[in-house]
């Protein structure tokens, strides 16, 4: 065993090989590694960030309770390393690295390109390599098949390559990892068979498609579908406020239809690693071929503009009270991108806070899951004790959030559309 790889517990192991190595131990990779370990496989977790590895060893990671139990159970069996070369000693590789966009909404392929290049450089004959990170159509072939072939490894004969998009929903325990169907597309039929055999060790339902490209497009469709519908329901929320209707009541009524309708819910924007990012991989790729997709483009533009609308609405609400944003004391209640997670990636709250600060407001936030943050504009803030403010903006409805300090006369802008505490609530 490489000196860099050791179990997350205190003891070491002399095991000479692993069944699977998971490259990237974030919100997707760590639960994936734990699912494989719980299925009885010898698992190596690979992450270049020593701080992340230390947090995993100490159990200071944002996981569902069920995955925390798995992490504790895996202390002397799940090995972790910061050296990607150790992955060569596994029979299979799962690549689970982030695929974000930059501030200009252009795909940032840095982590994906590096992980795939490392996997290809250290691959050995007999290995199965499965890419799960959402990316553009053709990425599996370009980033894995080409460099493997350049090394003289025949894909489908010497090594086996497939794409199977991740479908983990952080903070949601209603859909256990192993119960969510896995879409699998191999570069060749033998690649698909190898990948399905691997993923079938923990996943109960596998759906094969004809190619890696079909699987890549599947994930882009899933999240673009969600993005378009989020943009649509946000527009209905704005229209409902104008018409003095409760949009949540309207959505609940529409959802009684047993066919042809799926409820989506409005909010302050879309955050996380999927909705605000993944469709841009499709738009970026199609732009190269000058194919215009006006519906998707409009939806993503609307999502990008949503946090700014929250700031403008805050200005209107305070103006109705005879004051402006400049000098106003504003409390943002919850800043994580979704309830009951610690994840700040692409959280609308970061842009909202920057917008409020730019307008001259004195901004503080309260979120028991996020002790500190740095906005895109570089402002550092720490979670403050909640208390009265000129305006409270309800952003993230964590379960168990303390609302006992709220007074009935507290002015509150509800960007969640579901706030139920005592306050003088106004709709976003």
TrEMBL record:
GO biological process terms, semicolon-separated: polysaccharide biosynthetic process
InterPro entries: 6-PGluconate_DH-like_C_sf (IPR008927), NAD(P)-bd_dom_sf (IPR036291), UDP-Glc/GDP-Man (IPR017476), UDP-Glc/GDP-Man_DH_C (IPR014027), UDP-Glc/GDP-Man_DH_C_sf (IPR036220), UDP-Glc/GDP-Man_DH_dimer (IPR014026), UDP-Glc/GDP-Man_DH_N (IPR001732), UDP_ManNAc/GlcNAc_DH (IPR028359)
Segments forming domain UDP-glucose/GDP-mannose dehydrogenase C-terminal: 331-421
Keyword check for rRNA-binding: no
Pfam family membership, one: UDPG_MGDP_dh_C
UniProt GO MF annotations: NAD binding; oxidoreductase activity, acting on the CH-CH group of donors, NAD or NADP as acceptor; oxidoreductase activity, acting on the CH-OH group of donors, NAD or NADP as acceptor
Source species, domain of life: Bacteria
Record's keyword terms, sorted: NAD, Oxidoreductase
Family: Belongs to the UDP-glucose/GDP-mannose dehydrogenase family.
PANTHER family named in the record: UDP-N-ACETYL-D-MANNOSAMINE DEHYDROGENASE
The protein's name: Nucleotide sugar dehydrogenase
Protein species of origin: Actinomadura montaniterrae
């Amino acid at each position: 065993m490489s000196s860099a790889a050791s179990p997350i517990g205190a003891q070491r192991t002399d095991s000479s090989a692993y069944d699977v190595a998971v490259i990237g131990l974030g919100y997707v990779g760590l639960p994936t590694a734990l699912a494989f370990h719980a299925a009885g496989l010898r698992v190596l977790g690979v992450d270049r960030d020593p701080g992340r590895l230390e947090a995993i060893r100490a159990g200071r990671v944002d996981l569902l309770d069920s995955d925390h139990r798995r992490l504790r159970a895996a202390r002397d069996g799940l090995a972790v390393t910061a050296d990607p070369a150790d992955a060569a000693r596994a029979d299979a590789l799962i690549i689970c690295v982030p695929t974000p966009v930059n501030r200009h909404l252009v795909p940032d392929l840095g982590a994906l390109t590096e992980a795939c290049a490392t996997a290809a450089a250290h691959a050995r004959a007999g290995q199965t390599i499965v890419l799960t990170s959402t990316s553009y159509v053709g990425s599996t072939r370009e980033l894995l098949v080409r460099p493997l072939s350049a090394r003289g490894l025949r894909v489908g004969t010497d090594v086996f390559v497939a794409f199977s998009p991740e479908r983990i929903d952080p903070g949601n325990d209603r859909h256990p990892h192993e119960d969510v169907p896995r879409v699998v597309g191999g570069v060749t039929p033998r690649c698909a068979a190898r990948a399905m055999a691997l993923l079938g060790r923990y996943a109960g339902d596998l759906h094969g498609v004809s190619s890696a490209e079909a699987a890549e497009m599947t994930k882009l469709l899933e999240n673009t579908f969600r993005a378009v519908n989020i943009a649509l329901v946000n527009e209905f929320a704005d229209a409902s406020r104008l018409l003095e209707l409760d949009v949540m009541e309207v959505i609940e009524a529409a959802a009684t239809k047993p066919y042809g309708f799926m409820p989506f819910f409005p909010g302050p924007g879309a955050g996380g690693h999927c909705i605000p990012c993944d469709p841009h991989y499709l738009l970026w790729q199609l732009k190269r071929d000058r194919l215009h997709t006006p519906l998707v483009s409009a939806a993503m533009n609307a999502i990008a503009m949503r946090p700014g609308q929250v700031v403008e609405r805050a200005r209107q609400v305070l103006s109705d009270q005879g004051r402006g944003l400049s000098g106003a004391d504003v409390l943002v209640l919850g800043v994580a991108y979704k309830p009951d997670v610690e994840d700040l990636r692409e959280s609308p709250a970061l842009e909202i806070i920057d917008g409020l600060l730019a307008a001259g407001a004195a901004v503080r936030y309260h979120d028991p899951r996020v002790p500190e943050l740095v906005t895109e504009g570089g402002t550092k803030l720490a979670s403050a004790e909640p208390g009265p403010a000129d305006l409270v903006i309800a952003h993230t409805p964590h379960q168990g959030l303390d609302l006992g300090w709220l007074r009935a006369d507290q002015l509150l802008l509800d960007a969640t559309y579901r706030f139920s505490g005592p306050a003088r609530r106004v709709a976003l």
